Amino acid sequence: MFKYFSFKRLWSYLWLLLAHLPIRGHHRWVFLKMAGVQFKSKRPKKVFIYGGVLIDTMHPEYVHIGDGVALTSGVKILTHYLDPSKPGRQFRLGEVHIGDNVFIGMNVIVCNSVTIGEGSIIGAGSVVTKDIPANQVWAGNPARYIKDRVVE
Fold first, then answer.
1. What is the pLDDT of residue 2?
2. C-alpha distances out from residue 36 to 10, 39, 77, 88, Å
3. Is the pLDDT of residue 1 over 60?
């Protein structure tokens, strides 16, 4: 019954709850870092995490976020997934890597072990299920390639 209960998980859950307080977006990363979310640098530059962003409480330490990232309202990042190839309810774990200068639109769900490349844009309402290369725009359910991003 208490198979997944531990002090570490309770600690992470507490900090993830505190991250939902009405605070300015560029300070929310402090709460997420305390919960275990991995950031590229000790003091991330220009990281904006808006209200309503949900990080998986199971293993927040499997989420890696780069500098200059914007996670808009309603983004959900999952680190555990149901494995349909196994009988019963077997879950597998995976890491989510978000590169530098990535913009993730409202209500995006990242529901697989993926890497989102540097400078990518993910459109609102998308469901990310596979890796996204650097400097590309993706959108849809499931997220599909739209175009390359011109970086100046």
1. 52
2. 12, 9, 14, 29
3. no
